[in-house]
Amino acid sequence: MEKKAIGWRRLLTMLAIAGGLTLLAGLGVLDRADRTASDALCQRTDAFDGDIMVVGIDQRALEQIGPYDQWGRDVMARVLEALNQSEDCRPAVIGLDVLYTGETDPELDAWLAEAAGEYGNVVAACAAGFGSELIPDGAGDYALYTDAIVAFEDAFPSLRAVTGRAHINTMMDADGILRHHMLTLRLPDGEEIPSMALELARRYRDYWGEEPVELPAVNGRGFWYLPYCGLPGDIEVRSVAEVLSGDVPAEYFAGKAVLVGPYATGLQDSYLTAIDHAKPMYGVEYHANAIQALLWGNYKVEAGRGVQLAVLFLLLLLALAGSWRRSVRVSTGLWLALAGGWILLARGLYELGWVVRVLWVPAGATLIYGGCLAVNYIQAAAERRQVTNTFKRYVAPEIVNELLKEGSKALELGGEEREIAVLFVDVRGFTAISEKLKPTEVVEILNSYLTLIADCILRSGGTLDKFIGDAAMAFWGAPVKREDYVLRAARAAMDMVAGAGELSRELERRFGQTVSFGIGIHMGKAVVGNVGSAKRMDYTAIGDTVNTASRLEANAPRETVYISREVADALGDLIEKERLPELLKVKNKEKGLEVFKLLGIRENG
Fold first, then answer.
1. Terminal CA-to-CA distance of the chain, rounded, Å?
2. Is residue 184 within 8 Å of residue 211, measured between CB atoms?
3. Disulfide check for 204: which of 168, 199, 257, 597 has CB 3.0–4.6 Å away?
4. What are the two backbone dihedrals, phi and then psi, of residue 473, each rounded to the nearest 5 degrees?
């Protein structure tokens, strides 16, 4: 049940995290950055067909003719006459990306209208002004409509009567970038006016007897995503001055779609576009890009926001499931697969005609990857501390710290020869006691004595090697080298003797039984290190020094600490001792051992 509850908590946590990140994406936190990334990834240049040209009101024309605000309508009339020299030599369609509203000079107005109506291939511009307006909602109340047409400018009547009609509105996204194209403009009276690009594309197809333009799908506001094919400056541009001077013959424009409009910085008809966020594109170039896309039928559909949010939520859940409590290698692989794979997928989908959010998945996956790494690190550190603290209950803290410092090297099998002091301690009379008491009482007594032994060893900086039934082995001088390692062993032994007396009195009161220690200490060289197999090893000491200490303990009477001549000499006047009258005969030793009874440690020791 506990594991099941943990599983549910983890699932709910994952759902909450994925849902929160999805909500942030849905609220538009990444919209600006995502549009920029999408533009950089997807928008690609391609050569114009060559059937679309621009006649620009450029700097050369302004220098030769004069400031644009001083131009009369006769200038555009002469441009149209130069382009439409004859029925056999004229453009398929001419789009005027200039507003000619209201009547000015009757003679010049008539001239422009006559030139524009000569062959019926001219399209005049109109434009709407948008703003906010309160509109009845049908329920007795009003709703604020932010895309209401609040103004409209059209060509003057005589010009409008002989030309086509198309709007030249350009509306940028919230970040100031021109990405979309308004296909048609619907006036308040219901009349629908095509964009300049749509009208020119239609007339161009009609001129050449081709199939009608297939319209792109538009969003609720009438816009479609424009895949640009050229950077600013890519479309061929000839100056109005060149056309008027005859430097460019009329035959050059025959059968083509020609746009006439501003192409100079001071005329304030330029925009930052999706294909280039740094260099502005003139309005006539924007229309040319839209014409080319319409002629090619190269349309892109922006995937629904709701569908993309649902996909994002599922992929974020996958990222969480794959990264939660996983190794860095697995988490990194999944992050790269999701982030990099999604970017490649977004590019591929664009080629297939779909525009998706480029950054939603990579950004979400990156946040999850970083968060899971941090959480996994914190949890691993906490578990490491827990394991370390648990490990220190079984072995000396110095060993744990030394292993942590050395890392994996400390886990290798093998050892080194070190000078150490070895202590063996055994509970005397424990077998007899175990026969008289209940098993639970026996375990309680044993644990009390072993706890006392462990505390005395660890308090003096010793390494608790192992418990052997009711006995224990410890050593000093490894893994941490200390100058007073022999004295520390002696102090631990005396602490055991003192503690055993107090503990024995308590046990006698509770159980009517007492026990005591027999302790042996020897010093010398021994091999210290990891002994065992790769799957199960012990940090221990082996050698004759260990065996000798064990023999001393085995011969020590109750409440007695036996030390060897080497230990006695090393401690000298620091301890109080008593030499045994006879040498101690021990197994596997030809000569007897000179043994001392440790009576105490002097105050200066």
1. 58
2. no
3. 257
4. -125, 140
